[in-house]
Design goal:
α2 packs across α3. About 10% of the residues are buried. The strands form two sheets. A three-stranded mixed sheet has the order 3-4-5. It has a two-stranded antiparallel sheet with strand order 1-2. By secondary structure, it is α+β, with helices and mostly antiparallel strands. The protein has a domain of about 70 residues: 2-Layer Sandwich (GMP Synthetase, Chain A, domain 3), CATH 3.30.300.180.
Length: about 130
């Protein structure tokens, strides 16, 4: 189906055109962005956003726990709101799991806002 020229198209406004396979677009007077360019930009933006979120999490972790405790614990994976925390000290791990996990979680949520970290999972191992 050919592109129809109308006033909105000539003014540079975006317009979607129905093609045999569905909707295609956006079209502007400058042309169509290639799929490769769109995917590259999307991946770049997603990667940058993930790094910013991780850095924000690490800074909040430092503020919530203080220097001494945050140096003995290391952040692991962070998926679907569950943050893994690693330590090589079994006594510290026990203390965190049994007594301090809720306090640490509340402090993180206060720093980051609700929903950012919903649960902590403590792990023993080399850090």
């Amino acid at each position: 189906m050919p592109l129809k020229q109308d006033a909105s198209h000539r003014q540079g406004k975006q317009r979607r055109v129905r093609t045999p396979g569905g909707l295609a677009g956006p079209f502007t007077e400058e042309g169509v962005t290639s799929l490769a360019e769109a995917i590259a930009e999307l991946l770049w933006r997603r990667g940058l956003r993930a790094r910013q979120r991780r850095r924000r999490l690490e800074e909040a972790w430092q503020r919530a726990l203080g220097d001494e405790l945050s140096k003995r614990l290391h952040l692991g994976s962070w998926q679907r709101g569950v943050l893994e925390v690693w330590t090589d000290d079994a006594a510290l791990l026990h203390r965190l799991v049994q007594f301090d996990s809720q306090r640490v979680l509340v402090a993180l949520q206060r720093e980051l806002g609700p929903g950012y970290v919903s649960r902590l999972r403590f792990r023993l191992g080399r850090t």
